[in-house]
Amino acid sequence: MIPKIGTGKGGTRRLLAYLYGPGRHNEHTDQHTVASWNGFAPDPRHGTPGFARDLTALARQLDQPVTALGEDAPKTTVWHCSLRAAPEDPILTDEQWATIARRVLSATGIAPTGDQEACRWVAVRHAPDHIHIAATLVRRDGRPARLSMDRRKAQAECRRIEADYGLRRLNPGDGTAAPRPTGREHFKARRRGHTATSRELLRARVRKAAAVAGDEEQFFALLTDLGARVEKRHAPSGDVLGYKVALPGDTNADGRPIWYSGSTLSPDLSLPRLRAAFDTEP
């Protein structure tokens, strides 16, 4: 599970409009609140007559501790954290995501468990594989949030969450985090009627082939059997240096296949890393 944290100035309404809205490429689906600081915060529903009203009401409630300080409010007032599961992870329920959000908020110091004066926050889900947490950085008692190394603490808590929920384990700083699909990739997948992007589909097929194969030759054969187009990159000597894969029918405007190298799907799917794994298997 990968946490991505950012901060901002001003109120929360602009961030909330994005989280509850359709997305930049209409990629957001079933946008809704999974948890909040008080358990009954407004839940703006995009496409309903009261959407703008509920969005404004939620922003005002979140921002109230900041607004109360007036000119004494800190410059940085908004905290935003996205939490994304790996493509191969099971789909988590809203209740599970709510618990995960509270754990990360407690670990980072935004809303420690049992602290009734902690910062206000809301967790929003608009896709099957991730949530967003929007919070303000002024506590309900008017003091600033107790933030210290929040990114490191979020990473550490995500490692514990992975273990507790049986998710893909990512060691801190091991470089195996898979690149996330872009909004454009999500939009294209939906336009083609797919539930996952080409990057995600190919990553899953490559992982499956790597898990079953006993050596490099078998790995490439299995990839072809799984429906992926495969091209190898050769050195002048003829040795294979790397590989790239594409989905049949997934082309660019010129009609050419859209290729992904193993390392761009995920660092641990590069050919050198796969070879090392094959060599260490019994």
TrEMBL record:
<protein>
    <submittedName>
        <fullName>Mobilization protein</fullName>
    </submittedName>
</protein>
<feature type="domain" description="MobA/VirD2-like nuclease">
    <location>
        <begin position="73"/>
        <end position="167"/>
    </location>
</feature>
<dbReference type="InterPro" id="IPR005094">
    <property type="entry name" value="Endonuclease_MobA/VirD2"/>
</dbReference>
<dbReference type="Pfam" id="PF03432">
    <property type="entry name" value="Relaxase"/>
</dbReference>
<feature type="region of interest" description="Disordered">
    <location>
        <begin position="169"/>
        <end position="195"/>
    </location>
</feature>
